[in-house]
Write a structure and sequence with these properties.
By secondary structure, the protein is of the alpha/beta class. The protein has 12 helices and 14 strands. A hairpin with a 5-residue loop joins strand 5 and strand 6. Bound molecules: zinc ion (ZN). One of its GO terms (molecular function) is metallocarboxypeptidase activity. This is Peptidase M14 domain-containing protein.
Length: 466
């Protein structure tokens, strides 16, 4: 019965949904939900009326930014009024905001090229294309021929459009512990891949300057662009594209012409908030509950036709599951909001070791703050933001068994009083360097703390033995 009820609801939603992407006019609005009914209404807008929620946060009495497709704007505003939600229009010219950001980036590119003679620094001037990122990795690898065994480059597999997902390993050959970081799961979050590139550059500087203290302990694996298909599409066609580019041919027996799966809802650990019930020894049924992931292919948070359905998801899982590597930490970089988040995302309860996760996040974010004064909020995903099942972070901890797992939501802040909050996903390229700088320092301090706590643990073990 549950299943048929859910099916009816999905098909009903679909009839409203059609093709709501960023094409034509959109209106950016702010709402503040005051009741649980308001939260449910916002989820309905997202799932059925093509609303794109920009704020990761979805909580009572918090500002929520949503982009409304023009065709649905008056209907949504009417519903808000009916249910007592105040709507403030923040921007009714999103194309203008994208243009403003692009203009600042263009000026920055000209200035940076004039002022720097270092050809390796071109990644600071503008957001690179996929091809440029591939070239950048290759150049970084070749920077110091005598130290080439400190780095290696390999592909973890291909995307739907057959692009390789490149990964770089940086570390001394004797390093035995492993760290994994990825960027660019969500296509439109351009500041994320640029931050991974910045960190790659700096870690390789350490190798070149013969200061590989961290790198003699850790091999650091960085995937600068996990969703290259979506990223290319966002760079060339629709700036606000979020998902991958896989078609959704099968949709509960119907054909959907909406493209793309939200990769960060596709990972198969409590996918779609699935809850398993064992009825007898042989029969297990599951129901899907709505928690931050959608069953509608036209939604921005579409979780895919089944768990782990996407090649990008599977490729990351293969890397994490390789038994030869035991991972100390996994960090996945998104934007925006300035949050350093630990699991779980699928439910509001905490992992058993959450205090350790929280302490380490504090060490990282405090070091980050010392660079430019940027403040991050720390907490579990479901408690700080809202339940969102199917994330790579939950899978890395729940299935991959990695202890220290974090989602880092980079700048800008989602506080509307923040001077740069209005840029949201369109942070101009002037931010590549400051965001990269502070994040690199925060991550390094976090890694150092992993070394220290391991030393302390082995010391106390030895003391106990003696
Ligand atoms: Zn994201």
């Amino acid at each position: 019965m549950w299943k048929s009820m859910i099916m009816c609801w999905i098909l009903l939603s679909y009839s409203y949904a059609n093709n709501h992407f960023y094409k034509g006019s959109h209106e950016l609005v702010r709402v503040v939900p005051k009741t649980n009914e308001h939260l449910q209404l916002i989820r309905y807008f997202e799932d059925s009326l093509g609303v794109d929620r920009w704020s990761e946060v979805l909580q009572l009495n918090r500002d929520i930014k949503m982009s409304l497709p023009q065709a649905q704007a008056s209907k949504i505003k009417k519903l808000c009024k009916q249910y007592g939600i105040d709507v403030t229009v923040l921007n009714n010219d999103l194309d203008g905001l994208i243009k403003k950001s692009d203009d600042i980036s263009k000026q920055h590119k000209i200035r940076t090229r004039r002022s720097t003679k270092d050809k390796n620094s071109y990644h600071l001037a503008d957001y690179l294309t996929y091809e440029q990122i591939v070239r950048f990795l290759d150049e970084q690898h070749k920077r110091s021929p005598s130290l080439q065994n400190f780095t290696s480059i390999f592909s973890i597999g291909n995307t739907y459009e057959n692009r390789s997902i490149w990964t770089i390993r940086i570390g001394k050959p004797s390093a035995r512990r492993n760290i994994l970081m990825d960027c660019g799961i969500h296509a439109r979050e351009f500041i994320s891949p640029s931050t991974c590139l910045y960190m790659i550059d700096k870690f390789i500087d350490e190798v070149n300057n013969r200061r590989p203290s961290i790198l003699s302990i850790f091999n650091i694996y960085i995937i600068p662009l996990l969703n290259p298909d979506g990223y290319e599409y966002a760079q060339t066609q629709r700036r606000m594209w979020r998902k991958n580019r896989a078609p959704n041919n099968y949709y509960y027996g119907a054909y959907s012409n909406c493209i793309g799966v939200d990769l960060n809802r596709n990972f198969g650990y409590h996918w779609m908030g699935e809850i398993f019930f064992s009825i007898s020894c042989t029969v297990t049924v599951f129901i899907l509950v709505e928690n931050g992931a959608s069953a509608n292919p036209c939604s921005e948070t579409y979780a895919g036709p089944k768990p782990d359905s996407e090649s990008e998801t599977q490729n990351l899982q293969k890397l994490i599951s390789q038994s030869s590597r035991n991972w100390d930490a996994y960090l996945t970089f998104h934007s925006y909001g300035q949050y350093w988040i630990y699991p779980w995302g699928f439910a509001s309860y905490m992992p058993d070791d959450y205090i350790e996760l929280k302490n380490k996040a504090e060490i990282g974010s405090e070091a980050l703050k010392r660079v430019n004064g940027t403040s991050y909020k720390i907490g579990s995903a479901a408690n700080l933001l809202y339940e969102s099942a199917g994330g790579s972070d939950d899978w890395a901890k729940g299935v991959g068994q990695i202890k220290y797992v974090y989602t880092v939501e980079l700048r800008p802040s989602d506080d509307l009083n923040d001077a740069h909050a209005h840029f949201a996903f369109m942070l101009p390229s002037t931010f590549i360097e400051p965001v990269g700088q502070e994040t690199y320092v925060g991550v390094k301090e976090f890694l150092r703390s992993l070394i220290t706590s391991r030393r302390q643990k082995s010391l106390s073990k030895n003391n106990y033995k003696s």
